[in-house]
Amino acid sequence: MTLTVGLVGCLFNKMIGMHSGVQFMGYYVAVLSVPALLALGG
Known about the structure:
The protein is mostly helical. It has 2 helices and no strands. The chain is elongated and about 35 Å long.
């Protein structure tokens, strides 16, 4: 999962030129939302 988020972040960084702070916030939100989505799905 972490690797996937890292790859997506890297792609976004190359495509959009995202600021590292924005990338970190997106990563943090993804880490928090995954357990919530799994709880809803499960």
